[in-house]
Design a protein that fits this description.
The protein has helices at residues 8-13, 24-33, 37-87, 136-146, 152-159, 174-183, 205-208, 228-232, 234-238, 253-269, 331-340, 377-383, 386-396, 398-407, 419-422, 434-441, 450-461, 486-502, 576-587; strands spanning 109-110, 116-128, 166-172, 188-197, 210-217, 220-227, 247-248, 274-281, 287-293, 349-351, 356-358, 361-363, 374-376, 516-525, 531-544, 551-558. By secondary structure, the protein is α+β, with helices and mostly antiparallel strands. The chain starts with 7 loop residues before the first helix and ends in a 25-residue tail after the last helix.
Length: 612
């Protein structure tokens, strides 16, 4: 009998067939050849177990790999989430409308030379979550020590009345923040803040105004302008697209500091309750300095007055909000208009015989003087004759006078980039009879601000072209309307030069610099009607250098009195003029105005020594 041996083809044909432990063919073959069939069974059993172990190993390895990948992914997600939570700020409901983004960035403000006037500072606010506090009473006690303006009893009540959130301080110094840290209570938390910083303190405070917080959350706060240029240009300063570009002002920080120092000293020496000064470039209208005293620190802006006279508050801007009867400073406008109309020239003689009777009114000169019977127009300005100016104004007529004063800007708020300027209107008579024509010609019966006066004097100083004042730096002079011919403007400046040379402003004669200007002394009106006899507003409107004016300076003092002499003196010639002269002496070199040097006479002999 021939034994059967499965060939390779048979094994390939049935790869999935399970091999029997005792295959019949091999058992028969083993018996024929004297072999042991049990060995065949052991071999097949061993092969079967090897296959089962290999399958089990592969299955286990696959399960372990899947489990390892699952753990890796889980720990990665958990770790990333923990890092995100650790880096995030605590979130609380905003005090503003929900869903509105809070814009904290605000552009810087600089002077014309790039020196910072207003910028941003990163600080922190302090708030509490009373439910997380360990000992609210101890926290209240220690916070009252750190912040003396907080009352311990009030703070303790608010920390224990069940609320979940409480603002404690909107701005913290680094020292205060460290002391709060040392309290160590988990219910005290800090939120980042970007606050407005004014590094120069009080300097230019009325121009800048100030800023405060608008919409707030613990993670951010909106900074908004509250007054001055900060409020007027709030949209521009908060524009994210322009946040990197500072707003460049026309102010010169060095000049501003000098004017402030001199004006403050002069105000105290003249016993005045307030003062204002405006320095303007007559060609461009740029305001190089604007000062109002008393002033304030915009970093700690005081609250406005709720009663009494607004002018008693340091927030009151006397340069633009203060509308005063500016007195005899207006006389040059009557003279200039009359010359422009061809009615007079500087040497024309006008009636100056005082007192002047007009209906039931008597027009008098200061201290009852009489400069008449006749004066030249130049002497009317130099001697500050009310009667002479009144006759000139009557030549012009009320309608033309109104039109000219309106063209100079005296009927509208000044177009200055400050909310206070845009809301301060001059006080104009409702009717304009002849008596108003007379009184308005010498600065009574209508009121305007020192800024109005500076712009009007700049029109005369620059050759007769109307000037619009600005607090923003200009690269070139804007086109303006011509109101006076160059000849009339030149003659008007010459008249104002005469006021300093031999008129009421003789204290403005200083060595090295020629000044032209006009004094103005006006009695302060009473709220109940009439005028005070011992309270005045004194103004000196000037321009320099007088031979080719480049700058106009207006200085106004509120209720000044010079007590240096045997009797009190309240006129502008003794009070406002010396202060303005000192301002010019100090700021002219800063502005690049060279001093005038008197040369020796052509026929003079100069001694020269020669060293051997």
């Amino acid at each position: 009998m021939t034994a059967y041996h499965p060939d390779e083809h048979d094994m390939i044909e049935e790869p999935a067939a399970r091999t029997p432990l005792r295959p019949l063919a091999r058992v028969l073959h083993a018996r024929e050849t004297g072999g042991n069939p049990d060995t065949i069974e052991r071999e097949n059993r061993h092969a079967r177990h090897e296959v089962m172990r290999e399958k089990s190993r592969r299955r286990s390895e696959g399960r372990l790999l899947f489990l390892g990948l699952a753990f890796l992914a889980a720990f990665t997600v958990i770790g990333a989430r923990m890092g995100l939570l650790a880096a995030s700020e605590p979130m609380e409901p905003r005090s503003a409308a929900p869903g509105a983004p809070i814009l904290a960035q605000r552009a810087d403000i600089t002077d014309r030379n790039g020196r910072v006037l207003a910028t941003n500072l990163v600080t922190h606010a302090l708030y509490a979550q009373p439910k997380d506090m360990v000992d609210p009473l101890r926290v209240a006690r220690e916070l009252a020590v750190i912040f003396p303006d907080l009352k311990e009893e009030d703070l303790a009540r608010r920390l224990t009345d069940g609320r979940s959130f409480l603002w404690i301080k909107k701005k913290l110094s680094p020292e205060q923040m460290q002391k709060v840290h040392e309290i160590g209570d988990p219910g005290l938390l800090f939120g980042p803040r970007e606050m407005r910083l004014y590094p120069n303190g009080r300097l230019a405070s009325h121009v800048l105004g100030g800023a405060s917080f608008g919409a707030e959350g613990v993670h951010s706060a909106e900074v908004i302008g509250t007054a001055g240029l900060e409020k007027f240009m709030d949209a521009r300063l908060r524009d994210p697209a322009q946040a990197a570009e500072p707003v460049v002002l026309s102010l010169d920080l060095t000049v501003q500091a000098t004017v402030t120092e001199v004006l403050d000293t002069g105000m105290k020496m003249m016993n005045a309750k307030g003062a204002a000064a405006v320095l303007m470039d007559v060609r461009t209208g740029e305001v190089l300095s604007l000062v109002s005293l008393p002033d304030f620190d915009p970093n700690d802006r005081p609250n406005p007055l709720v009663k009494g006279d607004p002018a008693d508050s340091p927030l009151f801007n006397r340069a633009v909000q203060g509308v005063y009867e500016l007195g005899s400073t207006f006389k040059i406008f009557a003279a200039a208009q009359a010359m422009e109309l061809g009615l007079v020239n500087p040497n024309s003689m006008v009636d100056a015989n005082a007192p002047m009777v007009w209906g039931k009114h008597r027009i008098k000169e200061f201290q009852g003087k009489n400069y008449g019977p006749l004066l030249t127009v130049s002497d009317v300005i130099a001697k500050s004759s009310n009667v002479g100016t009144a006759h000139i104004a009557l030549m012009i007529g009320g309608l033309k006078q109104q039109a000219f004063l309106k063209s100079l800007g005296f009927f509208e708020p000044t177009p200055l980039e400050m909310v206070e300027a845009r809301s301060s209107r001059p006080l104009i008579p409702a009717r304009w009879p002849d008596i108003v024509t007379i009184t308005a010609s010498y600065g009574h019966g209508m009121s305007a601000s020192p800024m109005h006066l500076a712009a009007a004097y700049s029109t005369i100083a620059n050759g007769g072209i109307a000037v619009q004042p600005t607090l923003l730096r200009r690269n070139s002079a804007p086109e303006g309307t011509r109101l006076l011919s160059e000849r009339v403007a030149h003659d008007s400046v010459a008249m104002l030069r005469g006021v300093v040379d031999h008129g009421t402003a003789s204290y403005a004669r200083i060595k090295g610099y020629s000044i032209a200007g006009k004094t103005g002394t006006a009695d302060k009106p009473k709220r109940t009607g009439g005028y005070y006899k011992d309270k005045v507003i004194n103004t000196f409107a000037s321009m320099f250098p007088a031979d080719d004016p480049r700058y106009v300076l207006v200085v106004t003092l509120d209720e000044p009195v010079d007590t240096a002499g045997p009797e009190p003196r309240r006129t502008a010639g003794y009070t406002a003029v010396p202060v303005a002269a000192e301002v010019v002496r100090r700021v002219a070199p800063l502005l690049g105005v060279r001093p005038e040097i008197a040369l020796p006479a052509a026929n003079g002999v100069t001694a020269v020594s020669r060293a051997n």
